[in-house]
Amino acid sequence: MLFSSLIFVCAFFPLFFALYYLLPKRSLRNALLLVFSLIFYAWGRVVYLPLILAASLVGWGGGLAIGRFREQNRPGLARASLVVSLVLLLGMLGVFKYAGFFAENFNLLTKLDLPVPEIVLPIGISFYTFQILSYVADVYRGEVKAQKNPGIVMVYLCAFPQLIAGPVVRYKTVEEELTGREVTRDDVYAGLRRFVAGLGKKVLIANVAAVAADGIFGYEASSCGVIAAWVGALAYTVQIYFDFSGYSDMAIGMGRMMGFHYLENFNDPYTATSVTDFWRRWHISMSSFFRDYVYIPLGGNRVSKPRWVFNIAVVWILTGLWHGAAWTFVLWGVYYGVLLILEKLLWGKAIEKIPVLNRFYALLAVVIGWVIFRAPTLTDAFGMIRAMFGAYGLGSGTVTWSMILERSSVNVIFLLAMAAGIVLSTGVGRRLAEKRETLAPGSRTALETGACVLSVAVFALSVAALASGSYNPFIYFQF
Q1: How does DSSP classify residue 353?
Q2: pLDDT in tens, 429-472
Q3: Which end of the chain is more exposed for a tag (fewer CB within 10 A), N or C?
Q4: Backbone torsions φ then ψ of 272, nearest 5 degrees
Q5: Predicted local confidence at residue 407, as pLDDT
Q6: Helices 13-22 and 221-258, packing angle to 10 deg
Q7: How far is 130 from 92, CA to CA, in rounded Å?
Q8: Which DSSP category does 47 fall into?
Q9: DSSP state of 376
Q10: Is 467 helix (H, G, I), strand (E, B) or coil?
Q11: Alpha helices in 47-123 (DSSP H)
Q12: What's the rounded Cα separation, in Å, for the pair 244 and 162?
């Protein structure tokens, strides 16, 4: 089930929150949240419901064992419990996400003919595996206490707002709210408005940009030429940001309506002044996970330069593989690892001090990265990048974005969506929110009224677009 679907917006969402606010006790609200979350997950593929329940129980049991051995001052057994938990959790992720990829490449290297398993990827497995891994690791570190109630661990892991595509929520962030949260009128109002903003990002901007991006990436690069290649690359750059940040907005908004305060996952990433800065702003919960659980344990930057390069390489190869079992994702991770190393060792400090040029450099690097990320194969990725820089001129088929979108009315909608995407990518919304606190009461009331009217309009337009059966993919559903 997608957040940006009529069944969710018009049935699941209102029914859940109507029942949620009618229940007087937190324990009953947690039970309701768990039941609805399991229904939400099972809606996509019920056969994989036992998998997420097993991950919850492994995390709960591993946390209990680690906590007990820590209390008994038996570090060896605590470490063994951690290792067993990691092996089980990462083993599940490895089998379901990477078994086919590794078997296929093993056959290519060895010329053997081992069977290649064709496993449908369980929805959200990368996200919920990371969450439960962080819980077990934090119990081992002594940063949180082991939760004795398995139901609480299940609510933490399975809560439907962040279940499919994050943000990756740390247990310590919501530990107190799992058992002691309160919901105020301001929480409901702010959360609902955040949900609608995310819905608008997804339906009115990302979905429109997706039509052009998917259309152009569906052609041979030599047929696209320089114009179409850039339109496709920029359309995908808009699509992936508003697709993913829109989902995060909806998740954060619904969490707020329940009394949870999830951390932000994006901070205007396309305004970055370097690639390093971009990764401080993009998918913050994932970046911080790799920093805290991989990079720092490897030694971080407090090691020799060669070892630091090795640490960065490990982190970014894993980051690429986390996104998918394909060589394009591996190359994407290597690409960013190399850029980050070069920025640190060579031009990073200098480029950040050059106004305008630094933002152009960062955005160009990001757009090229998204081409690698989006392309079906490495050949397609290199071909599209060559097309962007004029290798095929206008292309043998002179494919342009107008040919992809076909109708002039759709072209206008595409241009409006791209313009809105560019404006919102500059952090306009954040700056207005910051300015709100400095306004006089009358001006603040006018701004709030305008925001409410805009939210109603965005919601109405989004529902109308969904009702019309418009194109509604979701990129991170596959991760």
Answers
A1: T
A2: 666 666 666 666 766 677 777 778 888 888 888 888 888 877 66
A3: N
A4: -60, 150
A5: 46
A6: 20
A7: 12
A8: G
A9: S
A10: helix
A11: 49-71, 75-93, 99-110
A12: 12
Q: Which residue has the tokens 């995060």?
A: 248
Which strand (E) or helix (H) includes residue 465? helix 441-467
d(CA 154, CA 158): 6
The Cα 251–Cα 164 span in angstroms is: 10
Pair 20, 29: CB distance under 8 Å: yes
- Please give the structure tokens belonging to residue 103: 């078997």
Residues of the chain with pLDDT under 50: 407-409
Predicted local distance difference test score (pLDDT) of residue 252: 94
Q: Which residue matches tokens 């990320």?
A: 373
pLDDT at position 351: 87
- Tokens read off for 346: 């060579």
Beta-carbon contacts of 249 under 8 Å, excluding residues fewer than 6 positions away, are 194, 195, 197, 198, 201
Token look-up 């399975």 returns: 158
pTM to 2 decimal places? 0.90
Radius of gyration of the chain (CA): 23
DSSP letters spanning 260-280 = --PPP--S-GGG-SSHHHHHH
* Strand ranges (E), 234-393: none
- Cα gap 246→424, rounded to integer Å: 12
Residue type, 219: Y
Written as one string, the DSSP assignment of 382-404 is HHHHHHHTTTTTT-TT---HHHH
Catalytic site positions: 323
Look up tokens 């995407």; give the residue: 421
Task: Please give the backbone phi and psi of residue 245, each rounded to the nearest 5 degrees, phi first.
Answer: -70, -30
pLDDT of residue 408: 44
What pLDDT does residue 432 have? 64
CB 216 within 8 A of CB 404: yes
Measured CA angle at 367 (ends 361, 369), to 5 deg: 100
- Cα angle, residue 123 at apex, residues 122 and 128 outer, rounded to 5°: 95
Within its chain, how far is the Cα of 78 from the centroid? Answer: 32
DSSP track, 119-170 = -PPPTTHHHHHHHHHHHHHHHHHTSSPPP--HHHHHHHHH-HHHHTT-----
Crossing angle of helices 408-425 and 207-217, rounded to 10°: 110
Amino acid letter, residue 48 = Y
